[in-house]
Write a structure and sequence with these properties.
The chain is 84% helix and 0% strand. The chain is mainly α. Helix 2 runs parallel beside helix 6. It is elongated.
């Protein structure tokens, strides 16, 4: 029965990791699953190492969130954008990712992932532009800030997903240890 729980845990971690691409909190789900698995299943006598892995996974989840949020806002700031532009870029990216989930439905799995990523970037672009335009900036300047928000959002999602891959690797060691 232990093998079945281990297999289910590994599958869950991989599914949770893929949720990062959709803008969902996959890294936090990996962290929660790791805590739950380490707590509920007996290890082969290495309890200390299991909880060290849980701490590492949780720390990486925090790092991933910080990088994702900072990348989008930093792109806006680097392009000379305002706080309003940065805030609306974050709001727009979440709304865009959500819309992308539904737009990409006709193409199973891949369509939703690609659409969520693209629409998150587009939402960040539009949000940043709206923030800059409402602050009285020109359309050309707003476009530059919006483009920076778009690329910042995509790079932030990539960074979070890569950190999630490391988290998945560390989490899966909990099964082995």
């Amino acid at each position: 029965m232990t093998f079945v729980w281990a297999l289910l845990f590994v599958l869950a971690v991989l599914v949770f990791w893929s949720l990062n691409l959709l803008g969902l909190p996959g890294n936090w789900m990996i962290a929660a699953a790791t805590v739950l698995y380490a707590w509920l299943t007996p290890g082969p006598g290495s309890g200390g190492l299991r909880w060290t892995a849980v701490a590492v996974v949780t720390g990486l989840a925090i790092l991933g969130e910080i990088l994702e949020l900072v990348a989008c806002a930093a792109g806006v700031k680097r392009a000379g954008g305002s706080r309003r532009g940065a805030a609306l870029a974050l709001v727009g990216s979440v709304a865009g990712a959500t819309a992308g989930l539904f737009v990409g439905v006709p193409v199973p799995v891949i369509g939703s992932v690609v659409a969520a990523l693209l629409f998150a970037g587009l939402g960040a672009l539009l949000g940043a532009m709206l923030g800059e335009l409402s602050a009285g900036r020109s359309q050309a300047a707003s476009w530059g800030v919006g483009r920076a928000a778009f690329w910042g959002r995509l790079l932030g999602t990539l960074a979070k997903t890569l950190i999630g891959a490391v988290m998945a690797g560390v989490a899966i060691t909990v099964v082995v240890v």
